[in-house]
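Re: the request from the purification team.
They wanted to know what the chain is likely to look like in 3D before they choose a buffer screen. I agreed to run a prediction and write the result into the notebook, where they can find it.
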Amino acid sequence: MAETVLSMARSMLGGAISKAASAAAEEMSLLMGVRKDIWFIKDELATMQAFLEAAEAMKEKDMLLKVWAEQVRDLSYNIEDCLGEFMVHVASQSLSRKLMKLKDRHRIAIQIRDLKSRVEEVSSRNTRYNLIKTESSRTIDQADSYMEDVRNHSASNLDEAELVGFSKPKSELIKLMDVNNTQDDLAKVICVVGMGGLGKTTLARKIYESKEDIVKRFDCCAWITVSQSFFKMDMLKDMIKQLLGGESLKKCLSELGGKALRVEDLAKFLVEELKDQRYFVVLDDLWTIDAWSWIKYIVFPSSNKKGSRIVVTTRDLGVANQITLESLIYHLEPLELVDATNLLLRKSRKTHEDMKKVENFKDILERLVKKCGHLPLALLTIGGILATRKIAEWGLVYNQLPSELETNISLQAMRRIVTLSYNHLPSHLKSCFLYLSIFPEDFEIKRSLVERWIAEEFVRAKDGMHIQDVGISYFIELINRSMIQPSKLNIEGSIKSCRVHDIMRDVMISIAKEENFVCLAGDDVTSAEDSFRHVAYQGSKCQNIGIDWSHSNGVRIPKGFSNLKVLHVLEVVDVKRTSSKAIKELGDLMRLSKLRLVTAGATQQKCKILCEAIEKLSALLSLRVEAGNWISSFGKLDWLHFVSSPPPHMKSLKLNGFLGEMPDWIGSLMHLVSIHLEASKLKGGKTMELLGTLPNLMLLGFHRYAFAGEKLVFAEGAFQNLRKLDFDRSMELKEVRFEEGTSPRIEKIQFRVCRLESGIIGVKHLPKLNEIAIGYLGEVAKLGALHGEVNAHPNHPVLLLECHWSHHDLGDVVHRSTTSVQSGGAMEGEESSLHPDFAVAGECSSSQAVAVTPEGGRSDS
């Protein structure tokens, strides 16, 4: 019996071995054939991409070519997807894994052979219809006419708020607002009307930011972007935060006693809190009277007679007429000839001297200004094109502008302007530009967008350039061409985020849809949906879609990670869950420029290995290490003392965890620009000695128990380049003192959640100081003495108090006649805003911020 069972087992095993061998042979044969086809379609893909770039200039003139180009583009998308799947399921797998997924291999092989067949059919179609033709004359649309020397120019960063020609409209609008008339004055609504591209938002922003003329006359202020589609709940939350303070929303929720939050609850709370406040609100980009009706009746208290003001920007005069009196409508007109000419010269990087030197330059310049209809957006857009052209080519640009702008300033003509700008983009920027259509209307897009471009393979590596830097140069070039608008700057003045003008976005979405590049949820797409390269879900369709990483400790990286030799950004790595070998391999990522780690729960041995890996990262520019978060208890980072030679070019350092003492190697970071410390429990002496010697340090942030001493002294000769100092939740700190000769370039100091029982001393020694902000739950003793120093300061800094003056120990120096009520500016760490996005950071007894300024001085922070 045993022999029979053994014989059957041998027979079954032999059959299994034979079957496996047969499958292996079949797999190898299949793979050999597939690999040949892979090489073929790879070569074809490269040719397709080159063809699509060349066809871009001609397809608008040849309908047959346009149709064929669309077929080639769709096929190229399919090839890219197939190649990606092949790399995952075949090329990167061991033979045993390949055998286990034989079904996948067959499917991919069939797909590849089908693609090869389609490639051959597309090629024969060109032969049948003779679609590719050589043109004798070369047009301005062809790619090689672009002057790719923009890399030699720094970004012009022409902020719309600095546009020429806005002084007169600003003064006229201020006069229309009549802010000085407050006696029994109901809220007055002023409308700014004009087509897209005229600068309505720019004008409103200049008013909103005019603290010396406008904002200081109101108890609270808010800037609300309405747009075509807005969510009532989100808008109300935003208004509460800006008008009443960041903690007011929590107060509202607590009053509900755990009940579900409703729009009506937020509206009732807002109206009640505003009834005795003089408020100033800008409603930017209002589209419909229905939107206004809802905002007016559910948000603003009708009983308020404090002289409040509401400024509305809209492109619809009919809406404006229904909102307010005709006498309170400001019609924004195109720029005057001189202003329009100056703007075009600035954006195109030319001067009046060029007009004298180059023959006929003045004539073509005047014709271009006229054809742009004196519209700021059109001038900025065309100026971005002209900046990349020789003056001799400007006539060609002029001939392609829509003639409608001379006689009919229409939205359609403006769209043609934007479309022309898109057509003139170099091919490498077109995909980057169209990709922005995945973001919602009025969305603030961070510069980390560049990393998405890299992942999508839109960014092409260049010899001698970091691929991240190439991507950033794409970002800056789109700004230079006025295709996107800068929004926020970091402490160094670099652009950190951008927005897309709504007209630009309209054109962008239209082109992206036409080219099957992006499908927005809600578009009428059925069977064609599979052919889109990207599908974006926005608005109400995706309210419940998304993943919260806020409580995540990061990911475990696998062994073999060091094979990613060109990796530049790695975040967030969970050191506890990652093996010691994989941690050691981090040191082999010689091109890594940005690294974020979570070390909570990691062993001391792993952390020592991590120190050795960090020392090898010679290209690292940004390091963030977190040993704990708001959920877990404070963790330790004292293992960082084992680092002996840190990455030499590091510019940004963020550490969250116990250090006890500042590591010695911090003092060697000669390129460090910003440092944020949290839960570090540092003492004053060594910390300030090391940090004070760093020659390029511009931003210093102490957050949540970062500093454990009672007295912080900025010594003579220290912090020579520091621009901003930020304290948050420094609970043990009692005194901050600035000695003569310290911090000569510091501009802003802000405190939140702290009690400075001995005060802030020595601000008279800070010659560049322009703002001291005492934010949420911040208390300062000897405030009278501080105000005396501010009052006598030659730079006339402003003292912003989040809480009412009576909340502090004022002494007997400050007179209430020298204080004015003003909403506090946003305290956003290292970023500053180019867009009016002000918000009160907290709530005090008066739910307002006080700007304490010298007698008769200006409050212009």
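For the purification team: Residues 134-161, 525-529, 540-548, 812-861 have pLDDT under 50 and may be disordered.
Please add any questions underneath this entry.
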